[in-house]
Amino acid sequence: xxxxxxxxxxxxxxxxxxxxxxxxxxxxxxxxxxxxxxxxxxxxxxxxxxxxxxxxxxxxxxxxxxxxxxxxxxxxxxxxxxxxxxxxxxxxxxxxxxxxxxxxxxxxxxxxxxxxxxxxxxxxxxxxxxxxxxxxxxxxxxxxxxxxxxxxxxxxxxxxxxxxxxxxxxxxxxxxxxxxxxxxxxxxxxxxxxxxxxxxxxxxxxxxxxxxxxxxxxx
Length: 219
Prior knowledge:
The protein is α/β, with parallel strands linked by helices. It has a single domain (7-214), classed as Rossmann fold (3-Layer(aba) Sandwich). 35% of the residues lie in helices and 23% in strands. It has helices at 7-23, 27-31, 36-46, 81-94, 132-142, 160-173, 185-188; strands at residues 53-57, 73-78, 100-104, 117-123, 143-153, 193-201, 207-214. It has a 7-stranded mixed beta sheet with strand order 3-2-1-4-5-7-6. A hairpin with a 5-residue loop joins strand 6 (193-201) and strand 7 (207-214). It is globular, with a radius of gyration of 16 Å. The two termini are 28 Å apart.
């Protein structure tokens, strides 16, 4: 496990940033439409109410922005300045007049206070993180007790058809992901995540949408 702030953690973060800086020019074309059903399912699962404060970890170029209700306060964080620049342009076009903020920030070491958000969304990011456990801990920390946490990712499948499809897509996944086919049990065993629903999304049901309740104790 890589500890946030350690030299090895920073090296991995720099590698991830370099990958996404290179990917900024083509990311929307490759990962836009093909992953949009998962984004839509995830935001629907959040069941947001007017005035809710929601955080999207790994907001990237903002491909999800048009799917959020206008009346929520949205904060998006990402490591890539290049991708955030595209997200800001997209927000000006798709969320005019809405409270939308973008920050360059490491999801494994966030600068927010505890219990800052009503809901947190992390899509296609947990397999990218240098330390997925640290990422989950931070997500639970900044989300209010009993708040909604939705995670979308591809997880290793024991189904032979899905496994064959995984192997086919592995070279493409490796372009941006540290662990493109990680086991689902790592998330289901997290102490503060109480699973409420699990659904499949995207082509060939490639991705899993996990809706969880933040079960940490209130202060």
